[in-house]
Amino acid sequence: MPDADNTLIFYIVGDNGASSEGGFDGTINEVMNLNGFPTDLHTVVERLDKVGGPDTEPHYPLEWAWAGNSPFQWVKQVASHLGGTRNPMVVSWPGHIKDPGGIRGQFTHLIDVLPTMLEAAHLPAPKVVDGIEQKPMDGASFLSVVNDAGAGEVRTRQYFEVFSNRSMYDNGWKANAQHTLPWRQDVAPGNWDSDKWELYNLKEDYSEAKDLAAEMPDKLAELKALFKEEAEKYHVYPLDDRGAQRLAIPKPTPSDPNRTHFVFYPGAVRLAETAAPNTKNKSHTITADIVVPDGGSEGVIVAEGGSSAGFALFMREGKLVYHYNWFDEERTEVVSEKALPAGEVKVKMEFAYDGQKDELGKGGTATLFVNDEKVGSAMIEKTVPGRFGIDTFGVGEDTGSPVVNTYSPPYRFTGEIKAVEIDLQ
């Protein structure tokens, strides 16, 4: 690498702590668990030979997460304890670090990494980006720690909060309140005032093994007051302990939270699910103007999601098909009664949601139209309430894992797509 000795590299090992989101028995579809539908153990066993392949999105049982985080308590999402937050970090800077392989035990936080990079590069934090004024960074550079194992801590105070699991670190002391369980996405406990707070001295007890709360109530009260102060400063309140329920809250639609009409053109692919129109828990229509060549066409007109969950409107053997994938457990297809004619054609899928305004994941009827003529209809018994997963939205192809288990991605449309319109009720 050119100028390798002057290249600063940060390698952070992990994404929070090890994850327990697979539940006690593990799962073959993590997205299903996160939506509040635990996988039945018998289903996991039946498809055990598929784990690790492209037909499942598995997650190990939570017991492995607990073991993986040892000697720390708890797991990912439980930000109250180090098992939910503490990760190793490796820093490489050959021309500057004088003790390669050295250990640094000073407390740092992820928000401190970028300020450290900026100081190392002798660059100021940007005040304006693309004409948008930036908020000041909350992090502090720990470049002094990188260069000197004996340097003092630059971050002496930090709050933590995820799903109401919360903690306050201050000069080696740490107060913790565990509140929710990651494998219970369908439960919203509330009652924050009844949470049991713990107290640890990390300078003498790095793994949070000895709870000092009963011995030092004044110190605990001091840290609880600090948490409240930091939480108010950084807009943590109101606390929200919902799991799957929070996941199902509609995100603001692109450009305008009240927008209900969207138009997409070929080339609009790999859009994040949260950047695409949210068709969940409501009636909606998908309309496309396409050109079918002589001899018919194949391929995806529009698709969102993947093998874990999602929908696709596509052509197969010259016929229009709408496929709905409910967590790879229930799949529903509507197929047009006859092949589409050649030339310019308007196709539409109209979904009539059976649930009321605040009811999530209910079923509905999907109806297909070709040139305004009804050509097929079917009842979809259940729909996804929150998220389809990590796969994306796209026009003209299905990238990533396929929504439909009978075609191979990207299954590009062989005709012409002029536009795809989505209307939400």
UniProtKB/TrEMBL annotation:
Domain spans labelled Sulfatase N-terminal: 4-122
Lineage: superkingdom: Bacteria
PANTHER family membership: ARYLSULFATASE FAMILY MEMBER, BLL2667 PROTEIN
Family: Belongs to the sulfatase family.
Protein name (record): Sulfatase/phosphatase domain-containing protein
Native organism: Mesorhizobium marinum
